[in-house]
Amino acid sequence: MLPQLARAARRILTSASIPHRVWSVRNASCDKPENLAAVLCAVNDLRVEKRPMPPEPKENQVLIRMGSVGICGSDVHYLVHGRIGDFVVKDPMVLGHESSGTVEKLGPCVKDLKEGDRVALEPGTPCRMCSYCKEGRYHLCPDVIFCATPPVDGTMCRYYVHTADFCHKLPDNLTLEDGALLEPLSVAVHACRRANLSCGTRVLIVGAGPIGLATICAARAYGAVRIVITDLNTHRLEIAKKLGVDATVRVCEGMEETQIAAEVQCQLGGPAHVTIECCGTESSIKQGLLATRYGGTFVLVGVGTDNARLPLTPIFHEVRFIGSFRYSNAYKDDGLWKKTGHNS
Q: Which domains are seen in the chain, by residue range?
C-alpha cells in the first residue's frame, strides 16, 4: 500500500509535461492551474483526481503551493482499514498532513508571511477559545481541525489553503523535505517533553519506525546518555544505528516480553529511566513497561490497540504511565530547529 501512496504523491506534486511555473496562481497568462489530489474513496480505493482550486484565502489564511508531503502511518491505516479508532472515513477524503510548500497568496490580514515564503504546515488548527487552547495545550482541543482526519481533507494535493499562523517559515538551510519532516519530529519532541527527559537519562525506544527514529534524535538532543531501540525489522535497526543509537535489540517471533526486557536492560546498563513506546501493540507496551526502572516514566506514543492486558507491577512501583498525543508549540520552539541539526 505504501508504493501506491508514493506513486500518487509523485504524480500530484510533479509533472513531466507542465512546467512548475504554470501552476502558479500569480501568473495570469499561464494555463489555468490544476489541483490534483490523492483522494481516498473507500478501503483500498485511492484515486488521483482533479479537485476544484481552493477558495480565496480568508483574513488569516494563505494559499500554499504544496512542495513536499510525507506518508504517515495514519494515511496507510485509513487506506487499508478506513478508520483509526473513532475517526472513520465515510466520504472521499484527501490524505496527507506531513507537509510543506510555498506561499502563493495572502489573506488580507496576514502580516508575518509574504508570497514566495517556504513554510512547514502545522496540520491542526484549534478553536483558540476552549480551556485547552487557553492553557497552551491546543492539541487537545475537541474542535481542532486537523488535516486528513475525517471529514477534513488533507494536504496531498497541489494547492491548499491553511491558517497563516500555523504555517511556519523555513530558514534557508532547510529544504521543503526537511519542512515536511518537522511534523513527525514534533511528535518525538513532544514525547520527550512529556517524559521530562533530561541529561544523564537512560532511554528505551520501542519501535524503529519513523516516529521511533525521530525520537532517537530528540532524546539525544534532550540529554539522553544511552539509548536502546527495539524492533522486529533489521533494516530499521540498521537505520537506527546510523542515527547514533547506542544499541539495538531485535525482537524475534516467540520471544517472551520478560526476555526482551532483560536484554534491553543489559544493553542499557540497567533499567530504562524513560521508555518511549512508538508501536502501540499490547506486546510492545508490556516489554516497555517491564524494562522500565521503578519510579521511572513510560510514555505511550504508538496507536495500535484500544484495549490491552498490561502488567500492573511496574505501575504499583510508581512507573508513571503517560500518554503523548500529537504536539503543541513545537514548530515555534527554537529547540526544534536545533533538534534537526539546523539553526533558524
A: 2-170 (3.90.180.10), 187-323 (3.40.50.720)
The Cα–Cα gap between 329 and 344 comes to 16
Q: Could you tell me the CA-to-CA distances from 33 to 27, 28, 339 in Å, in that order?
A: 10, 10, 37
Q: Looking at residue 13, what is its pLDDT?
A: 55
Q: State the Cα–Cα distance between residues 209 and 239, nearest whole angstrom.
A: 10
Maximum C-alpha span of the chain: 70
| pLDDT attached to residue 304 | 78
List the grid coordinates of 166: 500555523
Angle between helices 210-221 and 176-194 (to 10 degrees): 70
Dihedrals φ, ψ of 49, to 5°? -125, 155
Identify the residue whose cell numbers are 505511550.
300
In whole angstroms, what is the distance from residue 251 CA to residue 137 CA? 35
d(CA 53, CA 38): 14
* Edge-to-edge order in the sheet of strand 45-51: 45-51, 35-42, 93-94
Strand, helix or coil for residue 161:
strand
Among the listed residues 148, 169, 176, 172, the one whose alpha carbon sits nearest the alpha carbon of residue 20: 176
Q: What is the pLDDT of residues 226-272, one digit of tens each?
A: 999 999 999 999 999 999 999 999 999 889 999 999 999 999 999 99
How far is 186 from 301, CA to CA, in rounded Å? 12
Interval 17-33: pLDDT, tens:
323 222 223 333 345 67
